[in-house]
Amino acid sequence: MKKAFIKSYGCQMNVYDATRMADLLGREGFVETGAVEEADVVVLNTCHIREKAAEKVYSELGRLRVLKGERAEAGLDTTVVVAGCVAQAEGREILGRAPGVDVVVGPQSYHRLPDLLRRARTERVVDTDFPVEEKFDHLPPRRAAGTSAFLTVQEGCDKFCAFCVVPYTRGAEVSRPVAKLLAEADRLVAGGARELTLIGQNVNAYHGEGPDGAVWSLGRLLRHLAGLPGILRLRYTTSHPNDMDDDLIAAHRDSPAVMPYLHLPVQSGSDRILAAMNRRHDADAYRRLIDRVRAARPDIALSSDFIVGFPGETDADHAATLRLVADVGFASAFSFKYSPRPGTPAAESADAVPESVKSARLAELQELLERQRQGFNHATVGRTVDVLLEKPGRHPGQVAGKSPYLQAVQIEAGTDTIGTVVPVRITRAGSNSLFGELAGAAPAAAA
Ligand code: SAH
Ligand code: SF4
Ligand code: F3S
């Protein structure tokens, strides 16, 4: 039996793509392995978003070259594939920098992987096309993916934020047709999925062709999916503030399956920096938007992404970011030091912020965000919330799941409860998980 090892870096889209590559290799007779040393094919599904992420790949490729040599001595072939956004951004250059690499394939052409593997027997191959054919039409049907599954509904980005490589690595924004998504959703539900997370680089810009010929928005798609039997929960990520329309906000109010959680990156709280980043909205527009979302769903948990140390960022700009965070209050967040990326407009700026200043600002921001996260988690203690149980917990007799607010929850229960939503009374908040007990047959409180 041929074996494939697939490792993903970066965002949820890469995680989704990795499952699709596994499906594809499965059709070719490969089984997936978690042990890289026994793999006949090794796929690194890479991320280009920050320098650190991209550089990690090269150290991994160095180790793989050694492994490949050892396997060759034992008479075993190893094909090394670099997929994902570094593949797209660097293409053929990778072959020069990493001699052990056999195949370089971009995020829009990985459906051609079987053919590329055949060609790789005689030559090193690179495919970073944005092909006209639909990648998804060439992938095998989805296989079982667990209680909670990703579903790509939209790919690519036309926003061109000044710091970001995604429009270059993933290409222009494309929405998949509704009928295709419903078919994929059906397979996932039949395979045991109870929660679907609709993903896209700009998921709330979704505008797919509906079965009725009309253009469907994300709000309409969510409402429709919410009505399908077997689907208990819906989430979506990642959204841009400018695409957060009334219809989508209303879906949070009207559809109980649409979870009260919103990841809405703002990046900065300074109007000057937001303009320089080409985000096309100011800090107050974000505050007003949050007010509208909260009016529709008062208990919604908010999450965001932040970049500190964008070129030209002053202490006053940074203070404006801290003010925005204090005003809004986030349940969770990701924050990063600005990393100049080749080919992006911001990388040309002369007024770089010193590394030590970036570090200090990041520490200050993260301290505030962490306090808010802990505060949010502690506020759940004593409440009864619905938990979707997803997998065995850390210890025998425990099962792990998620609250509506995407908090990890551990309870004492049998594994036969996996795949169900149960009311749980939260008794304690740890640093990364909540702990609770089954609240019996009593109806769950508000959430
Ligand atoms: N499509 C999503 C996410 C893009 S990447 C969106 O539009 O929000 C995820 C996050 O990485 C971004 O939100 C941003 O905070 C961060 N990021 C992107 N480029 C970066 C860079 N050059 N340096 C540091 N952080 C970056
Ligand atoms: Fe990148 Fe901006 Fe597009 Fe998000 S919206 S993927 S940050 S260019
Ligand atoms: Fe990284 Fe590409 Fe996702 S750059 S964040 S893997 S879209």
Topology:
Elements: E1 2-8, H1 12-27, E2 30-32, E3 41-46, H2 51-73, E4 79-83, H3 84-90, H4 93-97, E5 103-105, H5 113-119, E6 125-127, E7 148-152, E8 154-155, H6 166-169, E9 174-175, H7 178-190, E10 195-199, E11 207-209, E12 215-217, H8 218-226, E13 233-237, H9 246-254, E14 261-263, H10 271-276, H11 283-296, E15 301-308, H12 315-328, E16 332-337, H13 355-380, E17 384-392, E18 398-402, E19 408-412, E20 421-429, E21 434-438
Parallel strand pairs: 1-2, 1-3, 3-4, 4-5, 5-6, 7-10, 10-13, 14-15, 15-16, 19-21
Antiparallel strand pairs: 8-9, 11-12, 17-18, 17-20, 18-19, 20-21
Helix pairs in contact: 8-9, 12-13
What would your notes on this structure say?
The chain is an alpha/beta fold and 447 residues long. It contains 13 helices and 21 strands. A 6-stranded parallel beta sheet has the order 2-1-3-4-5-6, sandwiched between helices. The longest helix has 26 residues, at 355-380. It starts with a strand and ends in a 9-residue tail after the last strand. Bound molecules: S-adenosyl-L-homocysteine, iron/sulfur cluster (SF4) and FE3-S4 cluster. Iron/sulfur cluster binds next to helix 6.
Outline:
Helices cover 34% and strands 23% of the residues. With 447 residues, it is of the alpha/beta class.
Q: How large is the count of helical segments?
A: 13
Q: Strand count, sense and closure of the main sheet? A: 6 strands, parallel
**SS strand fraction:** 15-25%
**CATH architecture classification name of the largest domain:** Alpha-Beta Horseshoe
User: Mind telling me the CATH superfamily name of the largest domain?
Assistant: tm_1862 like domain
Give me the Rg, rounded: 23 Å
What is the tally of beta strands? 21
Describe the oligomeric state of these chains in a short phrase.
Answer: single chain
Count of the domains: 3
Q: pLDDT average, as an integer?
A: 96
Termini separation: 47 Å
Low-confidence stretches: 442-447
Going by helix content, strand content and strand pairing, the class is alpha/beta
Shape: globular
Tell me which ligands are bound: S-adenosyl-L-homocysteine, iron/sulfur cluster, FE3-S4 cluster
Percentage of residues in helical conformation? 25-40%
Write the CATH fold name of the largest domain: pyruvate-formate lyase- activating enzyme
- In the CATH scheme, the class of the largest domain would be Alpha Beta
Protein name: tRNA-2-methylthio-N(6)-dimethylallyladenosine synthase
Main location: cytoplasm
Organism: Methylobacterium oryzihabitans
GO cellular component, one term: cytosol
